[in-house]
Amino acid sequence: MGKFELSHRVVLAPLTRQRCLGYVPQPPMILLYSQRTSKGGFLIAEAAGVSDISQTSPEMLGIWTKEQVEGWKPIVDAVHAKGGNFFCQLIHVGRVLETGNTVSQTLKVVWAQLRQHSLDRVGLGPLFGRVFDGVEIHGAHGYLIDQFLKDEINDRTDEDEYGGSLENRCRFALEVVDAVVNEIGGDKVGIRLSPFANYSESGDSNPETLGLYMAESLNEFKILYCHIVEPRMKSVFEKVDCLDSLVPMRKAFKGTSISAGGYGREDGNKAVAENRTDLVAYGRLFLANPDLPKRFELNAPLNKYDRSTFYTRDPVVGYADYPFLETTI
């Protein structure tokens, strides 16, 4: 994957866990990520906010202050010590902070605030001087960028350069990509998209066309990868049967493709074998099985995840206490 030498195709998906204090990473995260690191593996950290207006609660991660960046360092060091590759997912939640407002109402405020933040102000300068290997831009799941992309939530008009036409709705996402690429280089940048999903009222009337346009447009910036959520994942925790496919996006995008969304071992292998993706991202299965790549290799039994512990504040239970294969056989 670009300059990154990977030993397998099993990616740790970004997983919100709400174990932070004041947006600052905490020591238990060192164990969480270290447990899930294998030599030559690829991990994407849970979403980190880029400013003090970008997250929904102080239990969520941030990376816009020196204290937050310092909190990330030992976590990344632990991943690197085991030979892993580690990207940070950057997020702004947008109108999720004020559910009920229209996009135009919320984004007028957000846009004015974002204009006041330089890239150094939101942490990208110190971030790449000393910490992560790259970043993933969160452009999915009804958050800020996705709110611009989707025509069922973006209520701006054709008179506005960020609303109306497909090209206008995609403008903000591509401007964000351009800004990050100019700061750190496209070989360290990925993006996550979910054109078929409808999170937080962010659906689209023609997701196939939206996804294809974004995939083609991203080639201009020569970014490392495009991380795409499968069409079957329509909303939170909902997996449905559908005929839609990511293959057109896969064929259009010239970088590495990562697919996510309800995969197991067999259908993940099949997606790679049929050249529908390069890598497969796993969330809940990787959470419950810190040695997931090894279990997949051996076709070993899997631990079951406990959904009730996903978003609790406990730094151990349901977080770093899932057993390894050696302790279960």
TrEMBL record:
Q: Which domain of life is it from?
A: Eukaryota
Q: Which cofactor does it need?
A: FMN
All residue ranges annotated as the NADH:flavin oxidoreductase/NADH oxidase N-terminal domain in the record? 2-103, 132-302
Concerning InterPro entries, the annotation shows: Aldolase_TIM (IPR013785), OxRdtase_FMN_N (IPR001155), Oye-like (IPR045247)
* GO MF annotation: an example: FMN binding
Enzyme Commission number: 1.3.1.42
A matching Pfam family: Oxidored_FMN
Which keywords accompany this UniProt record? Flavoprotein, FMN, NADP, Oxidoreductase
- Enzyme class of the recorded protein, top EC level: oxidoreductase
Q: Which PANTHER family match?
A: NADH OXIDOREDUCTASE-RELATED, NADPH DEHYDROGENASE 2-RELATED
Q: Which family is this sequence assigned to?
A: Belongs to the NADH:flavin oxidoreductase/NADH oxidase family.
Protein name (Swiss-Prot/TrEMBL): 12-oxophytodienoate reductase
The scientific name of the source species is Helianthus annuus (Common sunflower)
